[in-house]
Design a protein that fits this description.
alpha/beta, Rossmann fold, six-stranded mixed beta sheet, globular
Amino acid sequence: MFMKLYFVQHAESKRKEEDLTRSLSDRGWEDIRKTARYAKEHLRIKVEQIVHSGKLRAKQTAEVLAEFLSPLKGVMTDENLEPLADTEIWKKRLVEASEDIMLVGHLPHLGKLASSLLAGNENSEVIAFRMGCIVCLERDQQRRWTIQWMLTPETIP
């Protein structure tokens, strides 16, 4: 069964010295709005749910994406998307998943999870994530994952 999985690295946040909560920077807000608008208008992304780590920068990124993409089941927090979370937790969940989903998180977790799904080795570093980017993976009927496309704020006209 085909399924789309969208990985999103949170948009640029303020430095810890500026803001201990690490909220999005002005550039981060601008980038994720631009990315979300483009994704809605040109890529027609439909997701059941957007899940984020709970960290403020990921939460804010997910909320902007939800404004544009209107996920049917809304936005949810899951600490298993935090930077150092165990990738096996989401890898196991995705084996059974059938609905298109968007995960908003952080490095190194997103990179390790993507590498594990695509190459069978979380240390392969298959995708060079960028802040505020969306990466689309698809699982085919043989349950193999492939990269479909990647959208970064700087590539949007």
